[in-house]
Amino acid sequence: MELCVISSINPFHSSSTRRLFQSDSLFLSRDGCSLLRFNGRLLKKPIKPLELSCAAKKIGSGGGGVRRSAASTKAAPAVEPSVKEDKLPAELQVKETPAPNSSVKLSVEVPAVVCEDCYQRVLTEFMKMAKVPGFRPGKRVPENIIVGFVGRPYVLRATVESILKRTLPHAMESVTGKALKDSIQIVSSFPEMEKAYSQLKTLSYEVVVDVVPELKWNPENGYKDMKVVVELGDEIDAKKACERQLRQKYKSLGALKIVTDRGLEVGDLAVIDISATTIDEDGSTGEAIPDAESKGFHFDTEEGNRLLPGFLDSILGIKAGESKSFSLVFPESWKQETLRGQRAQFTVDCKELFYRDLPTLDDSLADKLLPGCTTLKEVEETLTKRCQEMEEEAKEQATDNAILEQIRKMVEVEIPQSLFEEQGRQFYGARLLEIQASGNMKLTEDQLASLSSQKSVNEFLETQRESITNIIKQNLAVGDIFKRENLEFSTDELVKEVENSVTEFKKHKQEYDEERVKDQEIWDEVGESDEQRDKMLLQIEQECLDVYKRKVEQAAKSRAELLQTLSDANAELSSLTTSLGEKTFANGIPDKSSGTIKEQLAAIAPALEQLWQQKEERVRAFSDVQSQIQKISGEIAGGLSSNELPLPPIVDESDLSLKKLDSFHSQLQELQKEKSDRLHKVLEFVSTVHDLCAVLALDFLTTVTQVHPSLDEETAVQAKSISNDTLSMLSKTVLTLEDDKKQRLQKLQDLATQLVDLWNLMDTPDEERDLFNHVTRNISSSVDDVTAPGALARDLIKQAEVEVDRLDQLKASRMKEIAFKKQSELEEIYARAHVEINPESARERIMSLIDAGNVEHTELLADMDGQIAKAREEAVSRKDVLDRVEKWMSACEEESWLEDYNRDHNRYSASRGAHLNLKRAEKARILVSKIPAMVDTLVAKIRAWEEEHSMSFAYDGVPLLAMLDEYGMLRQEREDEKRRVREQKKVQEQPHVEQDTAFSTRPSPAARPVSAKKPVGTRANNGGGNRRLSLNANQNGSRSIGKEGGRRESLNKPAAPTNYVAISKEEAASSSPVSGAADQVSASP
What we know:
Mean pLDDT: 74
Helix content: 40-55%
Shape: flat
Number of strands: 18
């Protein structure tokens, strides 16, 4: 077997498991010590059988108070000596069946003759004890009388108990030599056995008994050539352990004071409540973690490195009464396997906050730190010596544990339940004794009774099942090795162990048994002559003289050395005062120049000692400050990580003045501030990288650890790299990611624009468009607006590219349909703009180009898109003029309607709807009065447009200015005609007026003339019809004038609509029924 010792740091140590393992692990013998040798390696694990035995008696039932060692487990005799003497009338039928956990189930059938024999014995016993009236004690009583006197149920119950008590030892004969003592358990229910016996007069029952477990080694004899790796933590190191103990003793001398004006800092003591829950993969809150919860926990921040990594950093700055919530990840070395690698959400409530008011650490505290010591140096030496001894013991203990753990993994064995429960009760009893003896907690009788209850024991067994099982496996494996290798303890080793035990007992002032030491005296009598005696005396005298001479020479040499020492002491004193910057010594140096050399040395020694101590303290102060400066400088330069320790600095002992120390402190404060600023920048960069990686769907951990491994989330904040290279690389990484984000956003927006165009081109339904909402929703977003995780992922862009390619291919297959659709769009634009084109020729041209294949489809669509864009621009430029044309046309229609209305003689009749026509006529007259101004404004707009575009403004192929000129001419003609008609009417009506005047009578309505004129063309009441122009007839009329040399007028009179009412003669006379007639002109271009 090979041993390899390595050192590892485990910040979260399992103290409970360690205590259990160290206290109660091996029980190889009953002499209080277990030994095992592997190739010269001696494993030693002392135990205290007396304490464990007492503890086992305090714990409830189940083991009967019997201790049984796991490693030295021996089969109890299954058959008692009385079994052979008590022979049964008939043989039992026993069936043996293997059961789990190294146990055997025995199915026992008791013959009727055996049951009857037991029944008679029970009756005999009752006859001896019962005092039946009419029968003398001890005399035989008839069966029916004794059964009736005692009671049949009691007789049956006693008979079944007798059968079990008598037959059980015989049934156990089949497991003789392998059954464990006190592990028998009757499985069958007693009421059922009682019921079966009362009916059948026979009895059957089942028994489960634990047997000696069988070990299986994997590999066989693997313990002979195994290699063991021993991990040693920092707490084992003697130097660090000494520093911790000294620090703890020093802290115990300080008074705790309440912090009121700041938050938690390193060195404080906080009383906190801790609660924790797991975090599932989807980020939701999981179950509570009972092992991580604590109420009123006294948290010493200087011991924070023993807790979960990052816990202390997360609560720094918390104040009393505040609460903080944060998430941490349990390390892979966590004691509880189920929590390893688990992310958890912690909530910490700070109840109280204290700081220690520590006294000055000097020699005056030596006796308080360690009774019996006078100086701090003596305290350190004593603690160092103790810690070195503890280190050796810890190494031996760790080696023993490693060997036992290794051999445990090599064995496969089923642990009997009875053995497990007994060992568990022993461990639990030892735990109670440890708590009671520790002095930290004194248990009351009620508390001890509660903890000793069966419920508490069972809960302990369940929670510590794995630990107890592992220890039992180790013990069984060791016992099997002893058996296989025929190992024995040597006398020397046992004697050495006894001596060590005696030393330990004396050290702890405990009683012990020690065998008496027999005194052996050897008397040798030697007879010599006088001559030989004188010769011996002379030789002795000569030797004495030689010794005297040597003593004188040594005294002279000593004097010279003392003088040299005195001179060196004075020089050292001067050098120390100079290096420390002290001009004069504070306590002064007694003047002993007239005394002896030793007196002079004694006078200067205290001052020199004090200066040496002051120098050592000053050197340590310089070393600490320079180490911190060197460490922070190394972190900034990048040559040293926060977890690495710098080389010890070289302190210039020639200048240890306070002025120089203050300068180092100032330099350290500047570096600490620079480190804080750099750390803030690093965290800002890391946060930006995290957000960018989330948007770009990149692995944040991989990206940030490529810059520096310490930038991951699990590393504590203070441990992150702050070097110039790290900041530079982080800045470059942020710029690279931002450029990548811009490029991806631009590419995604281009693809989204193409998708929208293709969708609109091919009339893609909304259902298909909704599938790419995540692509098109950022079509107009800026770079800063895109913050959703995964919004610019490569897969998303690839998906959009694939969709664009698919739509391009689909567009090629539907080229004619798409081209005609664009042509229809172009025609619709021109139609709305009243621009005349030839659609048939354009469609034929498109068809010929596609069929011939002489042009690329994309070029054709691009050309059509250009035409559409040009048409839209032209439509926009014509919009102002067309809007005014529409108003003019509406006014003309109202004018036409008003003329028809004025010609209606029944317009004032009381017919239905007449009042509506009156209101419309009133509005129409106002609108008609504005027509001249509309025409003037429209003409000005048209001329301005034509000057700007250097072309004539055509309306459905007809120049609009020509149309307006013709409209003006026709309007003037109409006005002239109206004036002529009015004058003619005046002439015709003059005789009637005179006659009416002469006879003073009113003219008859029948005499009222009816205009012979009729409006040309047919118009509806509401002014409907072709909206091209209200003067289409005038346009055509003007054309007919040029062709025929005259204007045709219709003399036919139209029938009056039924909803018109009559008007007065004056209104009829003022109305002019002149209107041009025209055919309908197609509005299509």
